[in-house]
Amino acid sequence: MMKTLYKEQGAQFRIELLETPKMQEFIETHADALNSGFQQVKMSDAMRQRLQRSNYIFSGMKTFHELNEAFPSLIDENGNRKPFEQFLNDVRKIDSTYNRNYLRAEYNFCQASADMAAKWEQFMQDGDRYNLQYRTQRDEKVRPEHAALDRVTLPMSDPFWEEYYPPNGWNCRCTVVQVRKTKYPETPHDEAMALGAEATGKDTKGIFHFNPGIEQKTMPDYNPYTIKRCRDCDIAKGKISLVFVPENELCAACRIVRALANADAKQTRKYAKPLQGTTINTTKFPHPINISRASITEWTNQPNKYLQEKNKMLLRINEVFEDKECKYLGPADPPPGKEKERVVQHHIFSTKVRGEEQCIIVWEWDWGEYTLHSISDHPEKIRKHIKKK
């Protein structure tokens, strides 16, 4: 990441740097680290995708702050550009702060949020048939202010759970369970709210006043890398207007990160436009592979079980081909009904998306040109048509 930043020219940090493949790869790596905390947690696919999207946005905004903080280190006290080794040495402390000191607490919080979001999803199946009860771990590590909430019991529909559903801070281990209505008396609403306000009193900014199950996010919109106004911003609510004018660098960065997180066909085509007319050159294939407008359209329109990941791959397609997991499988006949005039044959490459095999398809034309076509999440169907040697 810092190598990419070092290549930047000019006196001001460019927000557009977040759109580069190297930065996207870094953001995805950070998000994947957070996602790994709830891989085994049972939840719906829709909930999992929304939580993963939340982690991507959080990771993107964190990356923006780290880059913005590191950028001034490019220049020495005389206004001259530092040698790379000196720059790298100067920013090691920044990198360590963001990716070692902060990451553990962030990982724990995202894991706790995902656990509680999955629980909320289960609670929704019963609604107010049961009450919900707040519980701490009841050990010496429990914060006194959280201990006061232990055994608070209220219906799921009570607004208390919108404000004080765990986690209620960094490294919070509190949880919530369903209990029979006849087993525990309900806590008066006003008493519960007062206890909740006391428990989160140190959170003067109100960052942790959110329910990850209701909002379907691992991190609230207002967090250490955003500002208070982000709570009510239309962009945070998914209303990204075409006429939106960013008020500041944070808003501009947020817009870019959220667009990349969506990774839908329209957004991906926009960001992939510079690829049109370029060529993929890889040692795994003896011919240059052209990227056309049709390549971008077909790739982004292709259905896929991992839609976002598939679309993001296009933005770093050269790196995908050079990855050690990408292997050339050989030429293949077009599947019946999929023939196209002047396409002589297909060429198939195997790659991995979330550890699962997918096949990249390259078309060979009768005039000797090779173009990127698409990607398929049904490798078993594609492999059937590979020509035997």
From TrEMBL:
List residues of the Phage head morphogenesis domain: 85-176
Q: Can you give the residue ranges of the Large polyvalent protein-associated domain?
A: 266-358
Listed InterPro entries: LPD3 (IPR040824), Phage_head_morphogenesis_dom (IPR006528)
Q: Which residues form a coiled coil?
A: none
On the tree of life, the source organism's domain of life is Bacteria
Name of the protein? Phage head morphogenesis protein
A Pfam match is LPD3
